[in-house]
Amino acid sequence: MPLKKQLHALSAASLLALASVGAQAEMPELDLDGDVDAGKAVAMDRSRGNCVACHYMPDADSPGAIGPALVAMQTRYKSKNDVALQIWDPTIKNPEVVMPPFGKHGILSDKEFVDVVEYIWSL
Amino acid sequence: MNKTLTTITAACVGGLLAAPLIASTPEEDRETWNAFFEQRFPQVERTDFVNGVYSIDPVGRENWEAIEEFPPYEAAIIDGEDMWNTPFANGKTYADCFPDGPGIAGKFPHWDKDKGMVMTLPLALNNCREANGEEPLKYKKGPIADLLAYITYESRGQVVDVEIPEDDPRALEAYEQGKEFYFARRGQLNFACASCHLGNSGTTLRTEILSPALGHTTHFPVYRSKWGEMGTLHRRYSGCNKQVRAKPFPAQGEEYRNLEYFMTYMNNGLELNGPGARK
Asked: What are the extents of the domains in chain A?
């Protein structure tokens, strides 16, 4: 095989490998019908969502002040899907944002992600 | 109207993208850095930034000042002084390597032209040990932190004055790499050093106030209550990287040395006040 072709094959293989790693760049098709209470637990858990580290939310214990307060979400986002996209990878809307890409980097499992979206959308 | 907004947005984004391509000199960087913190914390005297988060947190400061009355790093200074004065197996001492010692912390980090690398104080101390047939010390905690505590204590009041010599382009390159490290996002949580300690300094992560980057290097090594012991600057770097779920780089490896070079340069003009005590 000529070198150039080999290189192509190699890069195609590594691209495939990258794409198949757990975390996905694009938000996959998910049924956004999570559990509000489970989502709340993830949002408050220091080692999981830890939304409270930066955001005020109702019932939050010692919330941080880096991000905006999570209130009246349904007046601020057109759809649950928009909220989901924002949590999946907030750098799409604003590359300078500090918030971690919870879906894209696999910080949350799909179940946790869908639950958190449900909870945040309910606020 | 919509079109105007779009044009403005496009221009802004273009500006952002183009910005890194316009080279700024280290001195310009330092001026920008200082101006940023002056504007962000107008109530803080410039010289007070060496006190880290306590320069902007009056409540935390009261606790900290109480801790400083019986400094938790005192034992480390005493142990470090012993190390400094105890001869190596060959009869020589650290003073043979550092005739101006022990107060030499203000001379580090510096660009070592012969070696083509940033020379830090811990690295120079280990070079001295190895030149005298002694095993090198580990870089994050333990005896190295004691020895650094003593040397740093003896260097208190020295003014940070890091040079980037113009006769060796590799020095500027090392500085630039350190700067890039500071602004590069890393880890699963996708944070840069700058994410917390520049743009969000002074805000709160839960109840923790994020300390300003200015002054960050002046007080190491530190006794950190969280550690329950002394640790070096590179131990802290390693901890920061782990917190954002990134793989830490080796202490005293090129990445952290260059980062220290950049960060310390930003502190030029401030006084050394180590060793310190932190939460």
From this structure: 32-122
Q: Please provide the CATH number assigned to the domain covering A32-122.
A: 1.10.760.10
Q: Model ipTM?
A: 0.82
Tell me if B67 is assigned to some domain: yes
Band the pLDDT of A25: cuts 50, 70, 90: confident
Chain A residues within 8 A of B203 when measuring between CB atoms? 64-66
Q: Are B272 and B218 in contact (CB under 8 A)?
A: yes
Check if the beta carbon of residue B260 is closer than 8 Å to that of residue B118: yes
Q: What is the CATH number of the domain that holds B201?
A: 1.10.760.10
Residues of B with active-site annotation: 240
Tokens 């601020």, located at residue: A76
What would the mean pLDDT of B257-262 be, rounded to a whole number?
98
- Could you tell me which of B141, B148, B109, B92 has the C-alpha nearest to residue B125? B148
Closest residue to A66, CB basis, from B16, B188, B203: B203
Cross-chain residue pair B189–A64, CB shorter than 8 Å: no
B206/A100 CB distance under 8 A: no
Quick check: B190 and A91 CB within 8 A? yes
